[in-house]
Amino acid sequence: METDYLAIRQQRNKTKKKKVIIGACVAAVITIIIVIAMQFRTTPDDFVELGGMTWRVLARRGNNIMIATEHVIGRGAFDEHADTVWRDSSLRAYLNSEFLNYFTPEEHRRIQMTTVSTNTRFLDTGEDSIVTEDYVFLFSPSELGQFFDHVFVFPASPENNIPNPYNVISTDTDGNPVQWWTRTRGIFPYSIIVVSEMIATNNQGMRADDETIGIRPVMWISMN
Fold first, then answer.
1. Do 136 and 99 touch, CB atoms closer than 8 A?
2. Residue 2: CB atoms within 10 Å
């Protein structure tokens, strides 16, 4: 019985083509997944320089990126009055006015106005949250759980304690760990939640007029 070598070769070629097509499809799917993932998460080594400061890239959304200063930019009160909220704070007023003078006109053009929702009291359900429009803002405790490594946000929950490749501890320019402000009210009416050197939110908070707490601005900017 003669062997049909031509038929065997044709069958082998068909098998090879199928493998190539399957391989190409798998590669395309992987590429799409990587591209989508890169739009929303960057590596811990992504930094940009703006306003003479180093900013860490935390997320991507289309052509915009979310950035936070790698170091606290200084220390200062959240507000001169202990009983306050983000909307009325002197720190918000400073970050959205005088602080913007550090940026060149071109850099300033890239800074995006962001709609920011902030709870008016600790463990608020969101019904009494205040919405502001800010160029520059501070983190809320829930946002910390999304973007930083092993930050313990209380009350603990899987959503609030997600390990990510970012370190929540911030330092001053000399490398000293510094606790820093969030924008959210603490347990007491006169307090604002801070991120402590112990990698946790201090929900008891610090008095809003405490001038020893670090300031770590956050903003969305355009890549163009």
1. yes
2. 4
pLDDT in 10s for each residue of the chain, 224 residues:
444 544 545 555 555 555 545 554 544 443 433 333 333 344 445 899 999 999 999 889 999 999 999 889 999 999 998 888 999 999 999 999 999 999 999 999 999 999 999 987 665 455 678 999 999 999 988 787 777 654 444 443 344 433 333 345 567 777 788 889 999 988 877 889 888 765 556 677 899 999 999 999 999 999 98
Nearest-CA neighbor of 168 among 206, 195, 203?
Answer: 195
Q: In terms of domains, do 117 and 28 share one?
A: no
pTM metric for this prediction: 0.71
Number of domains composing the chain: 2
Do 119 and 156 lie in one domain? The reply is yes
Domain ranges, residue 106: 47-222
DSSP 154: S
- 4 plus 103 within the same structural domain: no
Q: How far is C-alpha 159 from the chain's CA centre?
A: 15
